[in-house]
Amino acid sequence: MRPQRGKDKILQAAVKLFAENGFHSTSVSRIAEAAGVSKGLAYNYFKSKNALLLAIIDQANEKIFGVAGSLSPQGEYQQALRDFLDQYHLALKTNKNYLSFQLSLLFQPDLKKIVQAPLQRRAARLLSLTEEMFRDAGIPDPNLAARRFITELDGIALHYLSVFKDFPLEEMLQQVFRNYKDLPG
């Protein structure tokens, strides 16, 4: 087995088991078993279960930064906004279980302490990219517009991931586009 493939299998198994059973109820032994690797190999890649959790958060951050890359408009603001919202929609749909698990981490004080720093780095980078998009589009007070935009997306994600079973995700993101496409500039 190629080294990166073993590491990826461990990460995938950990995400699945953490989401299904919770962080505290999932052992490294169980993760290794589900990944089809030895417990020793799991510890070779990740010094502890906490380190494995942080690797999962880092991996998610990279995916989210890939989605956020469309926030820097190379051309028209409205197209960049549409592209970002389309990618955001796809990310929510395809990563629902993982994102629900990640959300649950924030409500567990001992785990929040572990993941808070990388999640704050993610939030700061997303705010910066969003603010840059609004600034480039000539939106007055781009920092405030970016904060409002992110707050709306966070609310949509929260409701989609954990509150309403039949949340109208696509319709809500279309409404966000309508609300932001013609901001005064």
General description of the model:
By secondary structure, the protein is mainly α. It is 78% helix and 0% strand. Helix 1 (3-21) packs across helix 2 (28-35), helix 5 (77-94) packs antiparallel against helix 9 and helix 7 (109-136) crosses helix 8. It starts with a helix and ends in a 5-residue tail after the last helix.
**Average residue pLDDT:** 89
- How would the global form be characterised? elongated
List SSEs in N-to-C order.
HHHHHHHHH
Task: State the distance separating the first and last CA atoms.
Answer: 54 Å
Class by SSE composition: mainly alpha
User: Spans of 5+ residues with little confidence (pLDDT < 50)?
Assistant: none
Q: What percent strand?
A: under 5%
Most strands sheet: none
DSSP summary: helix tally: 9
Into which percent range does the helicity of residues fall?
over 70%
According to DSSP, the number of beta strands is: 0
Using the CA coordinates, give the radius of gyration: 18 Å
Please write out the topology.
Elements: H1 3-21, H2 28-35, H3 39-45, H4 49-68, H5 77-94, H6 96-105, H7 109-136, H8 142-163, H9 169-180
Helix pairs in contact: 1-2, 1-6, 2-3, 4-7, 5-9, 7-8, 8-9
Summarize the structure.
By secondary structure, the chain is mainly alpha-helical.
